[in-house]
């Protein structure tokens, strides 16, 4: 399922955030959405997911505008992995992953064979089969991140949007999550994940979108996009003796 | 097994409610009398007094239990109670207005109108577009205003008898149960329950927050409207015929969550079942405890049973 973003402007309430974003993503791509805090990464992901309404411009999935899709079709087409890892109730891991099948379950809540297969497959892809009988609130942060990824994968949507899926995780779990996302892309899905770790983005992403102050300032392969000048301009860092250091702020 | 025990509890409470009263009726005569066979006095008592009372206890308990479970699911907070949307207070204000002006026959329609006005106000203030926080804030505000106005009416009660009538009515009771009341309350509660059952799967998806629920295709605006209408119908129908009965909507879902797990969609029908059984049991107890002409009020007794249980739950949670 191809994604096109055309002249997209959006924000939170009356506060504009995104300014004239243009971009496209193809099936099989893992795109890293990079940028400093407050640059508009989450806002862009929410606008693509249809969680906030654009003030102008379009988000198109296979040439159909996202807001015009019926809610169930939209839910089956776009999987959303939120940054927030809290769950309201002490659900078991399997119950939580099964929430991803909500768009397919009827009002009586029965699972079909396809639902069960999707849940098992998602837990396997996110490496959390062995956790399925544990309560979500007893898991470590890394385990919770894997389970929530499985919940998003259980939707089986061709487009997966992940908002900082590796935030506050140790290196092992960061790599584990990105490996899962890369596998999903290899299987033919379009995956867009906002990330802060530029090295992981270089290692796993096919392409990066770099955001700065609500604008998309780079769209290229990581090696090409993450140049020294871009790092200095967007992230205010430079490399000295093999280490990243801050560029002092001008008075 | 656990579901079977819960159903058994409901059936036991209903039979107990039918069998307890001022005139003892042998257990074997209960069913025949209910269907118009046997002693004429037994038939009158069963058909005109106990059956509508039991029916009302089951219906109102079911509505309050399900409302509590739905609200706890929506707010994602186990401490939410049907009262937070303000309908019990606005319905009570309607009934108290009828009592203030001495129109006892108007109590039920006035209370229903109160709940309806409360729901309309809440939807106007925090309808389809607002967040759960705004809905709760508006509900608490409307409820507090209605409670203050009820207090004002009591303050300026025209005479001591009107005041005592208001006070007793606010304690909640099913002693004036009738078939008419059961039909009105039953049909409204049933409609409310259907709305709440309908939104159960949406509340399940809401366990991971509003954004995730929306991404899973949950129409949040419609969910909020159905929730408000469902709770208003259940709570309004209950207050209109039985007065103010609190606590059931808070602690029944809480207990059942510990037994059946936290899935909000399953907890709504289970809490309806549990609430029905509990209120029928509590109403039976009020008849046992009403001695020497002093009536034990249902609202008081349900709080007396529910509050210590809740304190015990809090104590247990603190220890674990």
Can you walk me through this structure?
The complex is a heterodimer of chains A (251) and B (320). By secondary structure, chain A is α/β, with parallel strands linked by helices. Chain A has a domain at 3-84 and 157-246: Rossmann fold (3-Layer(aba) Sandwich). In chain A, 33% of the residues lie in helices and 27% in strands. Chain A has 9 helices and 12 strands. Chain A has helices at residues 41-49, 71-77, 93-98, 113-125, 141-154, 171-186, 198-204, 222-225, 228-235; strands at 3-12, 15-25, 30-34, 56-61, 64-65, 78-81, 159-162, 190-194, 207-212, 215-220, 237-240, 243-246. In chain A, the strands form 3 sheets. A 6-stranded mixed β-sheet of chain A has the order 6-7-8-3-9-10, sandwiched between helices. Chain A has a 4-stranded antiparallel β-sheet with strand order 2-1-4-5, with helices on one face. In chain A, strands 11-12 form a two-stranded antiparallel ribbon. In chain A, a hairpin with a 2-residue loop joins strand 9 and strand 10 (215-220). In chain A, helix 5 packs parallel to helix 6. Chain A is globular and about 60 Å long. The model of chain A has no long low-confidence stretch (mean pLDDT 92). With 320 residues, chain B is an all-alpha fold. Chain B has a single domain, classed as ABC transporter involved in vitamin B12 uptake, BtuC (Orthogonal Bundle), CATH 1.10.3470. Chain B has helices at residues 2-19, 27-34, 40-75, 87-100, 107-126, 132-155, 160-170, 179-205, 210-215, 220-242, 248-260, 264-289, 298-319. The A-B interface holds A 46, 49-51, 71-72, 74-76, 78-80, 82, 84, 86-91, 95-96, 99-100, 102-103, 105, 107, 109, 148, 151, 155 and B 76-77, 198, 200-201, 204-209, 211-212, 214-219, 257, 261-265.
Structural key phrases:
A: 251 residues; alpha/beta; Rossmann fold; six-stranded mixed sheet; four-stranded antiparallel sheet; 9 helices; 12 strands; 33% helix; B: 320 residues; mainly alpha; ABC transporter involved in vitamin B12 uptake, BtuC; 13 helices; globular
